[in-house]
Structure of ABC transporter substrate-binding protein:
Amino acid sequence: MKRKNKMHKIFRTAVVVVAAALALAGCGSSAKVSQPVSGSWADIVAAANKERSVTLYSTQAQAVLDNLKKAFESAYPDIKLTVVRGIDSELLPRIGAEQKTHRGIGDVAVTTDEAWIHANENSDTAVAVHGPSFDDPAYRRREAIIGGKFFTESAILFGFGWNTTLYPKGINSAEDLLDPALRGKVGIVTPATSPTYIDYYDFIEKHYGGRDFLQKLAANKPRIYPSTQPLSQAMASGEITAALMCNPMLPERAAGAPVGWNAGKYTWGAKWYGLTLGTAPHPNAAQVLADFMVTKAGQQATSPGYGSALPGIDGALAVAQDVPAQNLEVTVGTGAEKFRNDWESIFR
């Protein structure tokens, strides 16, 4: 209970600090917000079909997004889904720029940056979500949606990965990555591109020997990647042999890639939150896509190998609503800055 109260205070502090910065930058202006038509859900769907297009900004894996595009366009053949994949440090500034200039390109976005979400909770960055799927009791709306705008889509789970051809004995814990045989062959991700990565490093420190472990890992000369997707690709190709952080890679394994995954003794996860953008050029299609993402068909497309926002999804490894919040003491403000600086001093 004490941790919950403490986290609540940290969230509020983050909201005040970041919201002030957004205001100074000219974000959250009084320009007209892009809203769907008034009326029934059928009216919104009809208007979405006339818009014929919707664009998604997402930090999710490309294979997941490919599955989503196929499933969505099958359910709504009159609407073309364009996917723009990137990392938080690329996509969130783009969203801010589109809001500042009132020239929206994206309609829906997905991110794991909880501090950014809470900072924008009372701004026009996102609009309220509509759609029958959000009211499905199985979705647990009260736990899943922040401020009526930011909806839990799924959750990424990180663990240890390895190339099964190059390292058949596998990785069971973080300490296994210190094997001298893996010198120069372990992949890690810079925490500069997302608070999510900071949170994972914080988790690793808590459970695997603290800062001393990171220093030992640095001595083993790991290779640094901007995100988990190129890291996973490098491991599958044999460019690296093992990874400190990667998702379970079910699509890659199903396709025959020689990769293994282990969550270890402790499990870490981060929620992906979706939002319909206040500058969406296709506000009705945005609502239809958001709603579809939390249907069973949408979840079956995005959640195998991850945490799903609905129970009973084949291949899902957890329920996203049960994943704990980030440790904002280290992922926000001066805590994040200090962690990144310390990380740079160790690994660079």
Q: What stands out?
A: Residues 1-30 have pLDDT under 50 and may be disordered. The chain has 14 helices and 13 strands.
